[in-house]
Design brief:
363 residues; Four Helix Bundle (Hemerythrin (Met), subunit A); Rossmann fold; 2 domains; binds 5-S-methyl-1-O-phosphono-5-thio-D-ribulose; isomerase
Length: 363
């Protein structure tokens, strides 16, 4: 448990930037601001983050979530640790301890470890420095943040180009892969945003995404902000909706993609991909290069996070299940590459992904 001074601090209403776009995290010169995703959509609150421990806690508690957003936030967490160590003689060990603490926050999204590895490279490049390399670490964190936003716009354009081949249609999405889950714009929801601007999407069918309700609370909110027609349904309505034949694409993000193209994503994605294949709906997975893990041969090697039983046993403060019921709450699943029709990354588009095509694209 963090001590009170290590807990993130609620610091008021999160303002919208001048372009009206959603910013899940903002570097404020000497601290980090997070849009507290636990309070959405009822309240748009800011959480002030001043240390690596607070950063890790905010990731564990899902104040910030979504694979790229976790990576960017953790990178700023390393900057916050360096800030506290700037005048310390021995800054290397405490800084590496902060990196380990951040790495322990969530296990599945590889973007977290990718971003921390980039911060570690910056530390290694300044190993002999007498002071913690604060300016260099901040530059790396800002670069990770800026590039993620650029990559999302690039994937948005690529994905919209693929949808354009078939003409305007309805699409289905799962979880939240929008601006909130990334540095802005989004991955799967970024494709939907870009395609909507080109009038390629008639409506978005949003799955509520039990148990944390990323679809009902976050994707529904983001789509409403943009005026994109969205229809929310319980997760178990998906097969009925897909059978109706209006939806042409299932568009989802990823938390980690193994070398063979197997995709770890929010629990329920596997069942949706199976159903989509059954009903002739194409599955598109949208993820930046930082989500690919070439060190893992297949999805069987990807660690799957399980979260608290309370996410199932309670609605708010009210218990809805019998006492002592045994609960299994895995929050990701693995969709085999064979169920993915199109993989979109900022580096390009892969149809029917496999090991060779992925290795060639990432090279
Ligand atoms: O548990 P979460 O909300 O962090 O899970 C998020 C997802 O599964 C997203 O689909 C994934 O991170 C891609 S986000 C661009």
């Amino acid at each position: 448990m963090p001590s009170p001074q290590d807990a993130p601090v609620a610091s008021g209403v999160h303002s919208v930037n001048t372009q009206g776009s959603i910013e899940p995290m903002r570097w404020r010169g000497d601290h980090l601001e997070l849009l507290d995703q636990r309070a959405l959509p009822e309240q748009i609150l800011t959480l002030r983050i001043d240390s690596a421990t607070q950063t890790a806690q905010a990731i564990v508690d899902m104040a910030v979530r979504g694979a790229p957003a976790i990576g960017i936030t953790a990178a700023y967490g390393v900057v916050l640790a360096a800030q506290r160590l700037e005048s310390a003689g021995d800054w290397r060990k405490p800084l590496e301890r902060a990196i380990s603490e951040l790495a322990g926050s969530r296990p599945t999204a590889v973007n977290l470890f990718w971003a921390l590895a980039r911060m570690q490279e910056t530390i290694d490049a300044h190993r002999e420095a007498s002071q913690a390399p604060l300016a260099a670490l901040l530059a790396t964190a800002k670069d990770i943040h800026r590039r993620d936003l650029e990559d999302n716009h690039c994937m948005g354009a690529l994905g919209a180009g693929v949808i354009a081949r078939g003409g305007p249609c309805a699409v289905m999405t799962h979880c939240n892969t929008g601006a909130l889950a990334t540095g802005g714009h989004g991955t799967a929801l970024g494709v939907i945003r870009s395609a909507w601007k080109r009038r390629l999407i008639s409506e978005v069918r949003v799955n509520e995404t039990r148990p944390w309700l990323q679809g009902a609370r976050l994707s529904a909110w983001e789509l409403q902000q943009e005026g994109i027609p969205a229809v929310l349904a319980v997760d178990s309505a998906a097969s009925l909706i897909l059978a109706e034949g209006k939806v042409k694409w299932l568009i989802v993000g990823a938390d980690r993609i193994a070398a063979n193209g197997d995709v770890a994503n929010k629990i329920g994605t596997l069942s949706l991909a199976v159903q989509a294949r059954h009903f002739g709906v194409k599955t598109m997975v949208v993820a930046p290069a930082s989500t690919f893990d070439q060190s893992l041969a297949s999805g069987a090697d990807i660690p799957i996070e399980t979260r608290s039983a309370r996410e199932l046993t309670h609605q708010g403060e009210r218990r809805i299940t019998p006492l002592d019921i045994v609960v299994y709450n895995p929050v990701f699943d693995i969709t085999p590459a064979s169920l993915v029709d199109v993989l979109i990354c900022e580096k390009g588009v892969i149809e029917t992904p496999d090991r060779e095509k992925i290795a060639a694209l990432l090279r």
